[in-house]
Amino acid sequence: MFFQRVAVIGVGLIGGSFSLALKEKKLCGHVVGAGRGRANMKVALKRGVIDSAAPDAAAAARNSDLVMISTPVSQFEGIFREIKGNLKPGSLVMDAGSTKRDVVAAARRALGSRLARFVPAHPIAGAEHSGAAAANPALFRDRRVVLTPLKENRKQDLDAIAALWSRIGARVSRMTPAAHDQVFAAVSHLPHLLAYALVNDVSRRRNAAQLFGYAAGGFRDFTRIASSHPEMWRDICVANGDQLLAEVARFSAELGKIRKFLVRKDAKSLERLFARARAARERWLNGEYA
C-alpha cells in the first residue's frame, strides 16, 4: 500500500501523528498540509510532519491520492464543499472526527457524486496536548480505529483504509454512525465534560488558589483531559448533544444515589458501589472487555 501524495487538512495532534506514522512506515511519498494557524504550520514543516504547506484545503486536495480531514467537526461540511471539485478520480477521503452522524450527514450534503469515496473513521487516540508540536508517529499503535462505513462505499476502498490503519499499528473496528455516537457519548464525551466542569467549578471559587495549591495526583489524573482543545470539544458536545444529554441524565441519577448514601451515612452501600466500580475497572484493564 502506497499513496504518492497525501493531504492532511488540520495538522494537529491527530492529523500530524497520522502523517508521521505514514512516513515512518513509508506508506506515502509526499504529505501536503493545510491549516488555519500559520505558526502551527511552520512547526509542522520544521518538524517534518508535512513536506509542504498549501494555502487552503482545496489546494491541498488537488492531485492527492488520500485526503485526511482532522479539523474540529463543525468545519467538515465547508471543507467537503471546498475539496469536492479538486478530488481526482480514484482519490479517497477520510476523516478523524470524534462524532459520526453529523459528519456523515455533512458529507451527504456536500460531496455529491464523490460521496462513495469518503470513508468515515475515528481513531481512538489522543492526548491533552494539541498542535503539530504534539504529533507522535506512535500515537495509534495498539489503539482502536472505528470505521463507520456508508452503504455507498466500495469494499475495496474500505479494505484499503482498514489496511492502512493496521499498517500503522491500529486495531480496526466497524460500527454504524448511530452506535458510534451512543458508545462514545458514554466513554469519551461525558468524561471530558465532567473534567471541564470540575476544573471550571474549582477555578471560580473564592479560594481557588488554595484548592489548586493542595490538589494532588487524584485531581491531576481526573482532570488531565480538561487540557484538551476547547474548540474541538465544543463541536463534539454540540454535534452529539442528544446522546450526551442522555449520559448526563444517567450520571446525574448515579450521583443522586450517592448523595442519598452520604445523607444517610450509609457506609455499606458506598463501599459496595466502590467495590463494584473497582472490580469493573480491573476487568477492563485486564482486557476482559476487549
Structure description:
The chain has 290 residues and is α/β, with parallel strands linked by helices. It has two domains: 3-175, 3-Layer(aba) Sandwich (Rossmann fold), CATH 3.40.50.720; 179-285, 6-phosphogluconate dehydrogenase C-terminal like domain (6-phosphogluconate dehydrogenase C-terminal fold), CATH 1.10.3660.10. It contains twelve helices and nine strands. The chain has a six-stranded parallel beta sheet. The two termini are 28 Å apart.
Keywords:
290 residues; alpha/beta; 6-phosphogluconate dehydrogenase C-terminal fold; 2 domains; six-stranded parallel beta sheet; three-stranded mixed beta sheet; 53% helix
Summarize the structure.
With 290 residues, the chain is an alpha/beta fold. It has twelve helices and nine strands. Helix content is 53%, strand content 13%.
Number of domains: 2
Beta-strand segment tally: 9
Rounded to the nearest angstrom, the radius of gyration is 21 Å
What would you give as the CATH superfamily of the largest domain? NAD(P)-binding Rossmann-like Domain
Give the helix/strand class.
alpha/beta
Number of helices: 12
CATH class of the largest domain: Alpha Beta
The ordered string of helix (H) and strand (E) elements is EHEHEHEHEHEEEHEHHHHHH
Overall 3D geometry? globular
> Portion of residues in helices?
40-55%
- Please state the average pLDDT score: 95
Q: Layout of helices and strands, plus pairs?
A:
Elements (H helix, E strand, L loop, with lengths): L2 E7 L3 H12 L3 E7 L3 H10 L4 E2 L3 H5 L4 E4 L6 H9 L7 E4 L5 H10 L7 E2 L1 E3 L20 E4 L7 H13 L3 E4 L2 H27 L4 H7 L2 H7 L6 H10 L1 H24 L2 H19 L5
Parallel strand pairs: 1-2, 1-4, 2-3, 4-5, 5-6, 8-9
Antiparallel strand pairs: 7-8
Helix pairs in contact: 4-5, 7-11
